[in-house]
Amino acid sequence: MPLSALLSVLAQPELGADAPSWAPIVFAVGAFVVVVLVLILVRQKLKQYEMRRQDPDHPEDADARDPDQD
User: Fold this and answer.
1) Are 52 and 58 in contact (CB under 8 A)?
2) TM segments (predicted)?
């Protein structure tokens, strides 16, 4: 494709009008929702980890137990 034909295709304003003007707003809102959900899930997991760490009935792994208990 010659350079002049490529420039004429790029200069046509109707090709850039395919995307609606509200599309970036919807994309930004969707990205914000995803970030908020990830933060909520991470916070819940951290709370679960802290509760399990403080609970003496559920040791984190077998190596954390006192060897004198066996």
Assistant:
1) yes
2) 26-43
Q: In angstroms, rounded to a whole number, what is the distance separating the alpha carbons of residues 11 and 68?
A: 80
Tokens 């914000």 correspond to 32
- Distance CA(39)–CA(22), nearest Å, equals 26
What letter does residue 19 receive in the DSSP assignment?
Answer: S
27-59, pLDDT tens digit by residue? 999 999 999 999 999 999 999 999 998 887 766
From CA 48, how far away is CA 68, in angstroms rounded?
A: 28
Whether the Cβ atoms of residue 60 and residue 53 lie closer than 8 Å to each other:
yes
